Amino acid sequence: MSKIIVAIDGFSACGKSTLAKALAAHMGYVYVDSGAMYRAVTLFCMRNKIVGTDGKFDEKKVVNSLKKIKLSFKYNPAAKASDTYLNGENIEKDIRQMDVSNNVSKISMIKEVRSHVGIIQREMGKDKGIVMDGRDIGTNVFPEAELKLFMTADVDVRVQRRVDESNSKGEHVTFDEVKHNLMQRDYDDTHRKESPLTKAKDAVVLDNSDLNKEQQLAFVEKLIKDFLLTKDTLSL
Ligand code: DC
After folding, report:
1. Looking at residue 138, which CATH number applies to its domain?
2. pTM of the predicted model over 0.85
3. Which of 17, 69, 130, 163 could serve as a FRET partner for 37 with CA atoms 20 to 30 Å apart?
4. Would 236 be classed as within a structural domain?
5. Which of 31, 62, 82, 104 to mutate to test the pocket of ligand 1 (most atoms within 8 A of CB)?
6. Residue 123's domain spans which residues?
7. What is the DSSP string of the chain?
8. Which atom of ligand 1 is nearest to the CA of 104?
């Protein structure tokens, strides 16, 4: 049974990781959250005062710090996904904080950061059997991916989902601050010079504004079945 690569790209807080996790579990594939790697680099730079509290940083210092950063992942059965480790420390919770979200887009614009992280991502997908989500997975990391999805949803729907998720974890964020962060990141991610967020020509668009998790998974399962009918490479 041949394995494939599924690349899921899209705007912030579109439910990419929720769908990617469910799909990976369904297919017995590895799920990789590529944004977590950019968040980990950002967290390292914030902790080491390379990124100031005002969000300003010296690009050269960020690039220099890359050699001090060791990223790894370890499966967490409770979360049914891998946790992100920075130099051996589990930073899964820390990288989801709003201060990291506010700085990550700018750090992820740096060419050397992207090429460093891109090498790790390509290595993770070399044996296929992977579902990776992010902003440039179908366009830059795995342009050869057999299935590419481009996810989008109404911005207010996305904001409300993120607010609900944070509240359920006991974190208090307001609708307005989340909306400001998402809109800024969408702008930064789509306008940057290095591998901006854009739909790959051969990606299928999934607008999930009005779709629940089961409907989204069913949509992708159908795509994969159709793919199977045309290419005899995979059996689920
Ligand atoms: O998926 P996320 O929201 O955790 O990603 C955080 C940021 O990382 C996002 O705003 C842009 C950047 N990112 C990227 O540039 N390329 C990727 N493949 C994934 C994330």
Report:
1. 3.40.50.300
2. yes
3. 163
4. no
5. 104
6. 5-231
7. ----EEEEEESTTSSHHHHHHHHHHHHT-EEEEHHHHHHHHHHHHHHTTSB-TTS-B-HHHHHHHGGG--EEEEEETTTTEEEEEETTEE-TTGGGSHHHHHHHHHHTT-HHHHHHHHHHHHHHTTT--EEEEESSIIIII-TT-SEEEEEE--HHHHHHHHHHHHHHTT----HHHHHHHHHHHHHHHHH-SSS-----TTPEEEE-TT--HHHHHHHHHHHHHHHHHH-TT---
8. 7
Domain count, the chain: 1
**pLDDT tens-digit readout, 106-143:** 999 999 999 999 999 999 999 999 999 999 999 999 99
Note whether residue 66 is domain-resident: yes
Distance 38 CA to ligand 1 centre (A): 6
Query: In ligand 1, which atom is closest to the CA atom of 16?
Result: 1
Q: pLDDT for 163-214, tens place per residue?
A: 998 999 888 899 999 999 999 999 999 999 999 999 999 999 999 999 999 9
Which residue, by CA, sits nearest to atom 9 of ligand 1?
Answer: 105
pLDDT band with cut points at 50, 70 and 90 for residue 54: very high
39 C-beta closer than 6 A to ligand 1? yes
Q: Does residue 201 lie in a domain region? A: yes
